[in-house]
Amino acid sequence: MGREGGGASGRGRCVAGPGACRRRPPVAGLGGLGLWLQCLFPQPGMADSAQAQKLVYLVTGGCGFLGEHVVRMLLQQEPQLRELRIFDLHLGPWLEELKTGPVQVTAIQGDVTQAHEVAAAVAGAHVVIHTAGLVDVFGKTSPETIHEVNVQGTRNVIEACVQTGTRFLVYTSSMEVVGPNIKGQPFYRGNENTPYEAVHRHPYPCSKALAEQLVLEANGRKVLGGLPLVTCALRPTGIYGEGHQIMRDFYHQGLRLGGRLFRAIPASVEHGRVYVGNVAWMHVLVARELQHRAALMGGQVYFCYDNSPYKSYEDFNMEFLGPCGLRLVGTRPLLPYWLLLFLAALNVLLQWLLRPLLLYAPLLNPYTLAMANTTFTVSTDKARRHFGYEPLFSWEESRTRTIRWVQAVEGSAQ
Ligand SMILES: NC(=O)c1ccc[n+]([C@@H]2O[C@H](COP(=O)([O-])OP(=O)(O)OC[C@H]3O[C@@H](n4cnc5c(N)ncnc54)[C@H](O)[C@@H]3O)[C@@H](O)[C@H]2O)c1
Ligand SMILES: C[C@@H](CO)CCC[C@@H](C)[C@H]1CC[C@H]2[C@@H]3[C@H](O)C=C4C[C@@H](O)CC[C@]4(C)[C@H]3CC[C@]12C
Questions:
Q1: What's the complex ipTM?
Q2: What positions carry a catalytic annotation?
Q3: Residue nearest to atom 3 of ligand 2 (CA)
Q4: Cα–Cα distances in Å, from 112 out to 90, 261, 392?
Q5: Neighbours of 319 (CB within 10 A)
Q6: Could you tell me whether strands 238-240 and 187-190 are parallel, antiparallel, or unpaired per DSSP bridges?
């Protein structure tokens, strides 16, 4: 993991800014003369438009928090797209509105743990973006189910690519495959090569690490037809933005507490965060460039982050919740760490005792407390060097969009 594949390929393709690869509008207002002129003097985009709209993409987990942003970003930013398949256990009603556009949108209700369902969805796709997963650090799901969905589900996606001849696979991994580790060692502005003792015990990071390994090991396997599979993995830090359930939970908790949240984590602990739009953009870019830079990018991992400021988890959330009327009380944690740890352990006990009656899954448990209390931030230019990644949304824009969304959540809650 974290190995580099040599220098940049220098193929001179459009990799950089978002505007560079937007769909081009048709030449308007010239009628038949316009068409004739276009044939004689093709527009810069016309050479590609002969081959445009030829690719079939599949997004697993396309109705999740990140998946929806990936789906919308592909429709906006991928001119080569002919068909977009969205595979998810639960399909969202918003998919209907996408079906009226120029790209064929195919919604597939399915389960990644069912190999035959995955194979049917993958057959004929050129690129698979595998974001489906069970994200659970609160004990809502059993470790076995997390493993089944995240590890076996990923194995099924890989085998489906091999059996049906799909050559490009992008996997949404997580910063958690590296850390924070169980020893609470800080990872400060680290990159893909920074040495760190990645030791996992919790089922979620264990499953993500195993799945990532499967994806990277699959790079180079021969798919149906004899060509090699090209894979890579993106490791987002903590994602925020429109649709972020945990942000919604914090917001509602603050409202219940009379517009206040109480500081539990020292402000000095830095936690890496990335805007969902930029994570989606990186997926689109990596999927596109993987097809042209297989030798450089195949089998690689990339941390996925942007220019969001390095702050503690709570201070960062206040960037959005503050303008929505919440206040973070205290400049230091109001409860000592040992007491928080005690409460976290108590929550585990309560979860276990109440399990036969109800699902008790609070935000605070020993694992989330350890995560929130350990500095884990990344700083790397590997994605820029390998495939020209620059964040599409500035921090100001990401912040404004997220605040607007929280305000809309507030509006709909009233
Ligand atoms: N949220 C974060 O901060 C974060 C950070 C790093 C990585 N990730 C990774 O990004 C991916 C997406 O996470 P998210 O936050 O959008 O989660 P999410 O729960 O919102 O989305 C996951 C999607 O996968 C689908 N899914 C779950 N089990 C499935 C199954 N058996 N078959 C088919 N679909 C299934 C869900 O229905 C959901 O739509 C995950 O792989 C996660 O590990 C998330
Ligand atoms: C002690 C509480 C007092 O306010 C704060 C608890 C905060 C935790 C609920 C969150 C702190 C760090 C978060 C995780 C992190 O951002 C990265 C993640 C990786 C990703 O793959 C899935 C989500 C998550 C595990 C994320 C979950 C919530 C936190 C543990």
A1: 0.97
A2: 204
A3: 264
A4: 12, 38, 30
A5: 18
A6: unpaired
